[in-house]
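Chain A, query sequence.
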Amino acid sequence: MDSIGGTIPFVQLEKVSRIYRQSNQEFVVLKEVTFDLQRGSFVVILGPSGSGKSTLLHLLGGMDRPSSGLVKVDGADISKWKSDQLSQYRRTKVGFVFQSYNLLASQSALENVTLPLLASSVAKSDQHSKAMELLKRVGLEEKANLKINQLSGGQAQRVAIARALAANPDIILADEPTGNLDSASGQQIMTLLASLVRDEGRLVIVVTHNEEFIPLADRVIRLRDGQIQSDEAKANMVPVEKHTTDAHSGKSRSIRVLSLFNLARKAITTRLARSILTSLGVAIGVTMMVLLIGIGAGIKANVVKGISSLGPLTMIHVTPKVASNSFGPPGSTALGTQVSSPITSKTLSTLSHLSNVRGAYVAATYFATIGSKSNSGQSLVLTGLAPKNLWSIKGILPKLKAGHFPNGSQGVVIPLSLAKSLVPTSSKVSSLLGQKINIRATFQPGSFGPSGITPTPSYTQTMIIRGFSSSGSSGYISYSSAMSWAKIFANDSKTLHYPGVNVISKTLSSVRPLVKKITNMGYNVVSLDTTLKSISTAFSFLEAGLGALGGIALVVAGLMIGVVMSMSVLEKKREIGILRAIGIRRKDVSRLFLSQAFIIGLFGGVVGVIVADGAGSIINAIVQNFSHSKASIFGLPWWLILLGIALGAGSSVLAGLIPARRAASLNPVDALHQE
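Chain A, predicted structure.
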């Protein structure tokens, strides 16, 4: 159907009706409205309140759908389009100007004008310059950085017009654009709208009840009770065909991540106090979780460190198996204990030649007392070092504070704490290095023969101090010294029986097969690797349990975020309506709310980790003060830092999913009317 003026219609309404249903009642707002419009015309739709003129505007703008009839724009029936198609239509084809401006108060004039460009293909660097050009066009270039509440009503409405022009649309829809303005400002706005037709050939449709603007119109459509009462056009009206759409205006995309986070940040700062309180709720949950898991991790690290200090993870400790008729409990070495599989030199040779064994040596430990000319009788434990040919194995040697390990039979390493007690107050501990000292070995635990352990006389030897160990009560002697002392303490001079053997596997993967093989030979076997894995597994369950306790607080914080986000959706319905009206898609509205939740949760997670680290440091200081050691029961590994921050942000996003979905599903028209 041709329109008035004889040109091909750009907009066509064919028997459009809009009926609202509430309970069992129907309200007919529009009834079979039909008309055509073309580009380059200024159309004024007049009618009293309740006549359906705003509803008609919403249908033309793709913000509402007709109950029946067709709404065609450029030949396409938009009433059957999906939500995202309508969003793209509003962003590329339509610009809205509202009576109450519908500008975002948290944004500057420039940022409001830029909003429709966020989801376009316009480069970020070009968005600013284009928005400035539009503000200059409406005479507000100098007001670009002012907030909306710093502008007059007329200035705010001009910002709204500039925003409507941002995507270079074909149609401008103005709903009572002068309703909140004085007569002078209203006339300026109407003149500006009319220039969009005269100078650029756009289709401008203004809904108003003000008869004063009729002289500006090319076409006047009067509505009453949802029906067209009259439709008048100027007799000499010739539509202007000048407007062309930008090359980028038909392309729609998601809002860029940085732009989205910038919008979210500004939304958060508008209610900063509440956002901080919500974030602190997350921080408390993260603090509890990180602190409890950190304590478990710290205790685990100390236990693992203690086990690792016993030797390399490829070490297997072999001991004799106790006879079934022994007086002592299984595995004990008490007096009277008998063994069914003693360890002899032959056993040592057999173990050394097993496949995948790098070496094997006797594990010998002695109780002793130590003294000098001025001090005697202090107890310590002396352990035989591994043979020197195995020293290259990582972890096989204990840590030294000073000096070096003894190689000959005369050398000894004593604990640093013991060394400090052996020197006068004014002397340095290092003065003991190279000094002779008397050591009296009193007993070798675990040393027994076929008939069990028998008490042996003590043995005294003068030795040279070669170094200081970091252990509180353990010292070390060379392997040759340990073996010679074993002969002295032996209760069977013909056949030496050793308390145990340390077998070193060539690789970590061959430890378990060797453990199985040696066990089948009839010996008790303890693997550092197996022990460490068992302890690690046990502590993993402990950490999970402690983490679950802390997670309860995090769940509570998440629920609080969900409540706050739901309140935010209710409070920001109008802003959501504005975003939807300018063509922002539903998923971008959802992403905006999720971004707010993410920022709040991320901040809470970071604060929670920092607070937990501080609390853990205080706990460590208290423990170290009372235990007089450097042991720490709280640890903060890198994975726990990342876990705390990730759970803070993740729980917030999860809690915000439902409110974000609710925000995205709001009807643009209903949302815009929310005060």
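The chain has three domains: 11-253, 268-306+535-672, 315-506. Residues 528-571 form the longest helix (44 residues).
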